[in-house]
Design goal:
globular, 14% strand, 10 helices
Length: 387
């Protein structure tokens, strides 16, 4: 009974602490975001609409894809929300190879409503109304997590939600406020790692070692990528979004050069956390089976477990970064880029820097977490022996 109340108190403390931090983070993030100096686009709003009629179509098959049409649709749409809710508007919907929203009667869409001062509103078909499908997919994901993962699945879902919320309400406002993106990403990594693993396992030696292993592994990503970016001469100014970020920095204190660095830390967090938690759990189970093992034996057991993970996790990171740049690779190939031109391109430098830095950090996380686990698990006075 005493152990039950002790565990209940620990879980309640974690929930209260995380809830209080989340509330404070949301309040602070909202205040920072409300102070942003946005560009003047106040005349444009986006509202739901429903296509009621196609009055005329001048369409031909897209030469590049027989399943798509290009040309013009003259449509009528009913506005479903906003100032003009209930009104029917006429829209010329132009379809091109790049912008192609083909509509049919009864289809819900998002309408762009542009109304400069003292003029009548001008409507365009902005995009398909995708919210129900997205909500459905999120709901299915959460349902599967709960059905298959049970209590752990619920905790993992809460951890993921907290991570996303921290990125949006803490890291992004910190960066936009002029705080170093590197510092902001490190703070985000440490907080999200600690909270996610605390929700999964509570206060325990296993949690402590996983948090330390993940935090150290992710910081290694930063150190390695910092060295790589210095020698390869790459920064946030070499990304596709550099022009937009430079414009944003003119109205904020955004440090454009460090944004790429911060992105690498965040993108590598998942893989490093997976390795850190897996190694910490494996060594814990080994110790449970054979408590007589020494710290040295536990360390080498962790290394042996990690060897099987290195290959798969390295492939995961490399394929993730490559997949995100697949369209760029296709464009470069189609334009017949030369060998030395490709090797010296910003694209390859960034992908190599990200992929290899993250992969090397995953590899180094194995001995780091093994060493931390071996030390912490054999320290009898650190925590009580609970998983």
């Amino acid at each position: 009974m005493k152990k039950f109340f002790k565990n209940y108190f620990k879980e309640s403390f974690v929930i209260v602490l995380v809830s209080a931090f989340t509330l404070g983070m949301c309040i602070w993030g909202s205040r920072v975001q409300s102070g942003y100096q946005h560009y003047n686009n106040e005349s444009i709003t986006y509202v739901k609409g429903m296509i009621t009629e196609i009055s005329n179509e001048e369409l031909t098959k897209d030469p590049g894809n027989a399943k798509r049409y290009v040309g013009r649709q003259k449509v009528k749409a009913k506005v479903l929300e906003g100032t003009y809710k209930g009104e029917t508007v006429e829209i010329d919907n132009y379809l091109t190879s790049a912008s192609n929203v083909y509509v049919e009667p009864g289809m819900k869409v998002i309408l762009s409503q542009d109304q400069p001062e003292n003029t009548a509103p001008y409507f365009l078909v902005y995009n398909y109304y995708r919210s129900p499908i997205i909500y459905g997919m999120v709901g299915m994901f959460v349902l599967l997590m709960i059905l298959i993962g049970g209590k752990k699945g619920i905790r993992a879902t809460l951890g993921l939600a907290f991570t996303l919320l921290t990125i949006v309400m803490l890291m992004l406002p910190m960066i936009s406020s002029g705080i170093s993106p590197v510092l902001a990403s490190i703070v985000t990594v440490v907080i999200t790692t600690a909270v996610t693993l605390l929700l999964l396992n509570g206060f325990s030696k296993k949690t402590l070692t996983a948090v330390l292993g993940t935090a150290l592994g992710t910081m290694i990503v930063g150190v390695l990528f910092g060295m790589v970016s210095y020698f390869l001469h790459i920064s946030g100014y070499n990304t596709d979004e550099a022009e937009f970020m430079v414009l944003i920095s003119s109205n904020t204190e955004l440090k454009v050069a460090e944004v790429l660095f911060a992105g690498v830390l965040i993108s590598s967090l998942g893989a490093v956390m997976d390795v850190g938690m897996s190694i910490a759990s494996a060594i814990w189970e080994i110790l449970e089976v054979n408590p007589a093992l020494t710290a040295k034996q536990l360390f080498f057991s962790g290394l042996n477990v990690g060897k099987d993970m290195i290959g798969t996790m390295s492939n995961t990171l490399i394929l993730a970064f490559t997949g995100s740049g697949l369209s760029t690779l296709l464009v470069l190939t189609a334009y017949g880029i030369r060998y030395h031109q490709f090797l010296s391109s910003d694209f390859l430098a960034i992908e190599v820097g990200q992929g290899l830095s993250g992969t090397m950090a995953v590899i180094l996380t194995v001995p780091i977490t093994s060493a931390v686990s071996a030390y912490v698990y054999k320290r009898k006075n650190l925590f009580h022996k609970t998983s």
